[in-house]
Amino acid sequence: MKTIAAVMAASAFLAACGSDEADDETTTPDATDETSEETSDDSTDESTGDTIDYPDLSGETIDVASDWSGAEQANFEAVLDYFEEQTGASVTYQSLGNNVATALGTQIEGGGAPDIALVPQPGLVDQLVDSGDIVPVTENVVAQVDANYAETWRDLSTYDGELYGVWFKAANKSTMWYNVGVYDDAGAEIPETWDDFMSTLQLVSDSGVPGLVVGADVGWPLTDWFENVYLRTAGADMYDQLAAHEIPWTDESVVEALEILGDLWGDETLVLPGGAQRSFPDSVTAAFTDPPEAGTVFEGDFVAGNIADQTDAVVGEDANFYPFPSINGSEPAVMGAGNVAIAFNDDEATMALMEYLASPDAANIWIELGGFTSPNQNADTSLYPDEVSLAIAEQLTSAETFRFDMSDLTPSAFGGTEGAGMWSILIDFYQNTDDVEGTAQALEDAAVAAYGE
Fold first, then answer.
1. Does 278 lie in the same domain as 425?
2. Residues annotated as region Disordered (predicted)?
């Protein structure tokens, strides 16, 4: 079983997750007509020399589930389409929605678990290993992971010495997205510090467009806000301690982060009303619709995919990002996350798909489609569709400090359940930012219950 400390130790080295060799001649299957013609059933990635031997799986059906929907689901289904073409298998995808732990738990309890799930919570994987619901991957999958991933990613999915998962998708969740036209019209410059950020939002608001839009109806974007602020105000060591519940949520460091967020979220002159009822996708639309309803929206690199899917804005022209601002002189830091593929059986078809997900073939398809950062070292970074996507990946790999999404490291009942724990409590705080002490106490009470203390 993996401890939180082990996960933290591994995540400290995530700067090794990307490849800086953008000139590699790795091709993307199905990316263009030319590359499709060059790809055979026995696909070799030139950067590794490692061959994927796609088996004939005609007649086999593989069920896959994850939390992706909308643009992310469509892009992942394109990845699955290529596997189907190469093997003859039929792969069905189901979105588990925001409440992955509960949805997956219900399926397991009813005997209907998928063959593969790609989950965003290492804490949940830990629980599934402990309960015996998932299986270690086979030697072929291990070989792909060894060939294509930095040791840190193997460590993040290794339990009791056995590899259980493939980290397919990484996320840089320290990106602030802005409407270029709105900022230009307001005469706003890119802020580097939190004070400058607040001034920029005020300048944009004074121009006639609310400075910020927040989508908070299910709560997870608010946990990302908190984690970014806390990482910058309390530092990486305290972040690790809070994630492991070695310090209480009533600690002064938590109170300080909540006060900073309260000053922002509670300022009606800066924030577009309705955040507690607005979904995250709707917040992206609000910032990049025509005419725009707000100038800025915070969330991870996947915002690029939402912009492309939901609006007519062009990433890199109408939409761009800047790093989450420094607070109190904090050094550059990234809070990130990802989805790890885990298997509920070791059937040939299931393990063939796991092997594929660990290969550059799979990563390259989604890289080119956008809204995706791959932890696969041998993925072709030249395929990132624009300079913005590449800059996001480089920010992730060059950050002086990286920490994994705290809510994903905690027990699911506290950090990953809709209507409960951090999600619910931070929604309440968003609606009543005056109650900082009460919010800290509510978080501590929920953490004690979830950690079984």
1. yes
2. 17-57
Mode of pairing for the β-strands spanning 401-404 and 333-343: parallel
In a domain, 234, yes or no: yes
Q: How many residues does the chain have?
A: 453
Rounded Cα distance, 174 and 224, in Å: 8
Domain membership of residue 164 as a residue range: 38-172+336-397
Q: How many domains does the chain have?
A: 2
For 256-302, write each residue's pLDDT tens digit. Answer: 999 999 999 999 999 999 999 999 999 999 999 999 999 999 999 88
187 and 167 part of one domain: no
Cβ neighbors of 77 (< 8 A, separation 6 or more) are 93
CB 385 within 8 A of CB 221: no
Give the end of a domain, one of 357, 372, 397.
397
Same domain, 192 and 158: no
H/E element, 34? helix 33-38
| 192 and 329 co-located in one domain | yes
> Does residue 164 sit in the same domain as residue 186?
no
Report the pLDDT value the prediction gives residue 120, as an integer from 0 to 100. Answer: 87
Contact predicate 171/337, CB 8 Å: yes
H or E element at residue 165: strand 165-172
Tens of pLDDT, residues 164-178 = 999 999 889 999 999
Cα 362 to Cα 350: distance, rounded to the nearest angstrom: 15
320 is a domain residue? yes
> How far apart are alpha carbons 16 and 333 in whole angstroms?
15
Q: Which residue has the tokens 């055979």?
A: 40
Assess whether 214 and 305 both reside in one domain. yes
- pLDDT tens profile 124-165: 898 999 999 999 999 999 999 999 988 878 888 899 999 999
184 domain residue, yes or no? yes
Supply the pLDDT for residue 20: 35
Which pTM value belongs to this model? 0.74
Picking from 213, 367, 368, the residue whose alpha carbon sits closest to that of residue 282 is 213
Listed residues 397, 414, 429: the one ending a domain: 397
Strand partners, 335: 403
Residues of the chain with pLDDT under 70: 1-50, 397
Q: Token pair for residue 151?
A: 């040791």
Q: Where are the alpha helices (DSSP H) in 162-302?
A: 180-186, 194-206, 220-234, 236-243, 252-265, 280-288
pLDDT at residue 3, rounded to an integer: 41
Query: Which positions ≥6 away from 352 have C-beta within 8 Å?
Result: 54, 55, 57, 87, 89, 140
